[in-house]
Design brief:
Mean pLDDT: 85
Helix content: over 70%
Radius of gyration: 18 Å
Structural class: mainly alpha
Strand content: under 5%
Largest sheet: none
Number of strands: 0
Number of helices: 8
Shape: globular
Distance between the termini: 44 Å
Number of domains: 1
Length: 173
């Protein structure tokens, strides 16, 4: 790490904050699932239908993850955590399932409101999801204090792997 690198200028605490809120497996997984839902959408689906499917699917996945985390954290393996503490942990821990897909959901809104062509809005939602994966991969690399150009490459690789996963899921579905 060099003194002028992005990682050198990044405060230590900023990395921990980004990891705990944004760069999580749940954010990556939620973004991937959104991409899969979009890829598997029927050709005649409107953006309004896609918006409802993606938003409700993300919410249900988030709720299931919150529930599962509460059950697991409330048990003896985690020191028999109080229900309120387990719920607070679960809600924070699972936030990525809502945060990751949010950009794609927002990209579908103009199409759903007939402000933008459905096809353009759909394409923006797909590209937005891939962009989120690139940003998450880049942020993870920056947090590891990788040189800026390698961080960007890591982000692009994250987006490429995400695209491959979405394509594979669409092919095998």
């Amino acid at each position: 790490m060099t003194e002028g690198s992005t990682a050198a200028r990044l405060p230590r605490r900023a990395g921990r904050i980004s990891r705990s809120i944004w760069v999580t497996p749940e954010a990556v997984y939620g973004t991937l699932l959104t991409g899969v839902v979009l890829a598997l959408a029927e050709e005649n689906s409107s953006d309004g239908e896609l918006l409802v499917n993606v938003a409700s699917g993300s919410f249900v996945l988030w709720a299931a993850h919150v529930f599962a985390t509460i059950v697991a954290r409330h048990g003896a393996a985690h020191g028999r955590q109080a229900l309120r503490a387990a719920a607070a942990h679960a809600t924070h821990h699972s936030a990525g399932f809502l945060i990751g897909p949010s950009v794609s959901v927002l990209a579908l809104v103009p199409g759903a409101l007939n402000i933008m062509d459905d096809t353009l809005s759909y394409v923006l939602a797909v590209v937005a999801g891939l962009a989120v994966l690139v940003v998450l991969g880049t942020a993870a690399a920056i947090e590891r204090r990788v040189r800026w150009y390698l961080s960007i490459l890591a982000g692009l690789a994250t987006g490429a792997v995400g695209l491959a996963i979405i394509i594979l899921e669409a092919v095998f579905h």
